[in-house]
Amino acid sequence: MLEKAQAQGVTLVPIAEEDPELPRAQYIDTQRVLVTMGRAGVRRITHLSPVQVFVLAMMGGFFIGMGALTSILLASGVGTPGTTRLLEGFGFSVGFFFVILSEAVLFSEANVMMPAALLENRGRSLLPTLRFWMLAFAGNLAGAYVFGLAVHFAQTYGPSDAHLLNEVISLKLQFRAIGGAEGWFKAVISGVFANWLVGLAAFFATMGRSLIGKYIPVMLAVIAFDAANFQHAPANMGFFGLINATGHGPGWGTALGWSIAPAAVGNLIGGFVLVVLPFWFALRPHERAAAARECSLELRPPAPAGGSSTGLTT
Asked: Which CATH superfamily is domain 30-154+171-294 in?
């Protein structure tokens, strides 16, 4: 049989007795994601100046504004509610994914990264972390505001787009109709669920090793929180930036008091309590330490081939 195969020009490859080596995993283990996010947060706190953080946060506000605009343009004129919500979430995922890829600063992403950084360095950078949070919020708001003004100045959209934007804004302000402490508390709880999903999106995006592996969880999480109308502070900034620029919006006082501010409080709680803390608690200390050592080994530069690491010759 061997002679017949060789005569036909077929090359036979011997099969090893042991199993072939498994392909490289296409995602990072959960333990290592926590360490990676924590170290990235510490690096941002310690290496970025306040001006740099604010500029990156303004970029994040621009991206989120673009996501809000894309969601409206894709979903306007669609008859069925389910398809409308699906297209809104798909469109908005554009802005969030731009934030992930560019490493811009987003308030809701910081609600996961900053707690991970505090746990990583045992709370030694509390004041710089609080400063980072405030700059992220202010920069996102400024970016969404400027983006809305620029789009209104440059572009004109149809009545169906304006109609859908007004519907979205009415959903963002639904808790104002309840009023009082009850309305504010419900808005906060809605914000908790929003940053649970967005925090998981950031968590799973860190886990992915490829662009598509990072985008799929972002898209799914954004579609979920948009369909459920959970209150996401940066997203609300983007939508209010678009409508307030037209002069037909509720104004920034109402937007902040009944939508953005309570959502931000809930986002803070959701990112820490529902994402970072459960994973950190469930993973035992020695597992976290082993993951940290593995990350350190991967980040260590390789030694020069054929020589010692000191570079000296004898």
From this structure: Glycerol uptake facilitator protein. (1.20.1080.10)
